[in-house]
Amino acid sequence: MAQYDKKEVLERVEGKWIYVYSSLAPQLHTALSRIGRHVPCPKNNQGKTRFRLLPAVNETGAGFSNDGGVGIRGFISSGVDMLMWLNGWTFSETINKIGETLGLTPIHEKNQSGQASTKVINTENVVMHANAARFFGVLVEHGKARYEFKEDNDLSYYAKLKYASGFERLVWGVDIERALVDAGCEVEQEVTLINLGRQPVVLMVENRDSAGQVIGTSELHTHRNLWKAELKSQANTHKPVIDVPVAEVKQSNVSAQPMRAQVVKADQPSHKAAQKAVKVIPAAAVGHKAPATVDVPQNLRSPAVDLIVQRAEEYMKASAKAKVEAASKIERIWNETVPFPHELSYPMTQYLQNRSILCQGMRDAPDMRFHPALKYYDGEGQLKGTFPAIVCAIRDPKGQIVTLHRTYITKKGMKAAVGEAKKMMTVPEGMTVTGGAIRLGTPTDGILGLAEGLETAWSPARALKITTWCAVNANGLENFVVPDDVDVHTIIIWEDKDRSLRGEQAAQVAKAKLEAEGYNVFIMKPSSPIPPRAKGVDWNDVLVSQGILGFPSRSSVLRATAAKMTSSF
Q1: Contact 468, 440 (CB under 8 A)
Q2: H or E stretch including 530?
Q3: How far apart are CA 552 and CA 259, in angstroms?
Q4: Could you say which DSSP state residue 395 is in?
Q5: Domain boundaries in the chain?
Q6: Which phi and psi angles does 309 have, rounded to 5°?
Q7: What is residue 73's three-state secondary structure?
Q8: Other CB atoms within 10 A of residue 344 CB
Q9: Sequential pLDDT tens for the chain (569 residues)
Q10: Are 216 and 252 in contact (CB under 8 A)?
């Protein structure tokens, strides 16, 4: 297979991942048709909610898998990693496959073609390749800094662009400074940066004497990556050749998805200017402009794929709007719920009793409430009816409600026959559920239980009278943070026994993290075998099938806890 330049491939594939996936990863067909929503795992077609492509997939290629052993705790941060995971390719194979698919020029052909020597520095005299890499967005900031803000790197120049989807990217190049000045570009203007490629140039350099004084200038013949900058008004006179979707969105502060070494973290001391405010696109501008054309090889284009790209952009706009409105919706729904028990909460009582969970002690869990008629919307945003629902607050480590978790049920206490009976509401902009949990009571005796699911968390509370909090899922368990105001020395993790081993992985990651923080940690794993056709066994399954006799005794747990504490001194 021909070899392609890695840097060129990674620059040119941005904004084209959906097209590349449609050609190189047919396993993603279902996920591409439902970007941002959960689908079966594309690698093994198992489960219903094992995988999803993130809304900014066309820019980054990113996705998330609930199966273990993928990315960092399930996060697949780039399209290259995605293709390597799905197809079993090496990094080099993946780069070359992408380069071939995009119709780029292989390295050996570039080396054979050569370039004529010239004294060109004016970019107007440079012939612009039809597929020149372009980066379009609002210019957030620019300046001179060491490359990637690393002290050991040489000085370079950067421009920080914010795309309409909210994704931010740093573009590096010494010549960017001249290009921005020549075009008269200023912060908060919409600009296009065009990489004209490596060109022979003549630079005027200062000649200094032994004392360091300038005594003249001379010509230096060298090569440099040249850039051209265009303001939006100028760019509109050319055929747009853009590497990212540019559909307008109502808010410009949409959370960006992580990308390799291109997004500046706010905690970098050498780059405090990253906190500058970004211009918000006026709401009146939404929907009044035709989407710009993305320069994609014709062999990758089709009406079906173009429609997927359009839907992805629409989903990103809807996601941005939902994040803005999330806080008010959370507050409204929480205020519509009633505390448990309540005269209206019979369906919730029945649901818990059907799972062998008694309701005593739930008065001490005010974060678990009941909604008599909560609206249910499907994955397409269509209202499918109203249902009774168990509504739980997910709090961050500081105790602030971040969002709500809903379990839709029937009036007779069965799980509602809807697409996703358990759903978490959108997390408001600027907040995160990472580290949080559903707090089902106050720990006593310095012991706190942790479990993935709500019913699983209530089961040891029922069997052993040990307060157990719900981490919502495996990722929540791995990232759980013990609040500072909770007096706890021992954590008991009630592990889910899954065929995929995801529950075991999450429990081990959480154990290692919490032990490093100084807590005594025990993992309790169900001994029951996984039934045929079942995904796994959790501790609520044990409670339903075996009752409290399927659990270790409270006294044995307390003795083990005491013994471990004694041995640690």
Answers
A1: yes
A2: none
A3: 45
A4: E
A5: 6-112, 115-301, 325-428, 434-569
A6: -60, -45
A7: coil
A8: 15
A9: 788 888 889 888 988 898 899 889 989 988 888 888 888 889 877 767 778 888 778 888 888 887 655 554 577 888 998 999 999 999 889 999 999 988 888 887 655 544 333 344 455 555 555 446 778 788 999 988 888 888 777 788 999 988 765 667 888 888 898 889 888 888 889 898 888 877 666 666 667 777 767 677 776 666 677 888 988 765 444 333 323 232 322 332 323 332 222 333 333 333 333 232 222 222 233 333 333 445 677 777 778 778 887 777 777 777 778 778 888 999 999 999 999 888 898 999 999 999 999 766 566 788 999 999 999 998 777 899 999 999 999 999 999 999 999 999 999 999 999 988 999 998 888 888 989 999 999 998 899 999 999 999 999 998 999 999 999 998 899 999 999 889 999 999 999 999 888 899 899 999 999 999 999 999 999 999 999 988 899 999 999 999 999 999 989 988 888 887 766 54
A10: no
Tell which CATH classification among 3.30.40, 3.40.50, 3.90.980, 3.30.1450 matches the domain 325-428. Answer: 3.90.980
Cis peptide, bond prior to residue 341, ω within 30 of zero: yes
Please state the length of the chain. Answer: 569
pTM over 0.70? The answer is: no
DSSP output for 257-286? PP-TTTSPPTT-GGGGGGG---PPPPGGGT
Using DSSP, state whether 489 is helix, strand or coil.
coil
> Which residue type does 540 have?
N
470 and 367 Cβ atoms separated by less than 8 Å: no
CATH 1.10.540.10 fits 434-569, yes or no: no
Q: Let me know if 113 is exposed, middle or buried by CB neighbors in 10 A (0-12, 13-18, 19+).
A: exposed
Q: Which two tokens stand for residue 351?
A: 């649901």
Candidates 563, 564, 562; CA nearest to 445 is 562
Crossing angle (nearest 10°) for helices 79-87 and 91-101: 110
Would you call 224 exposed, middle or buried from its count of C-beta atoms within 10 A (0-12, 13-18, 19+)? middle
Q: Are 477 and 496 in contact (CB under 8 A)?
A: no
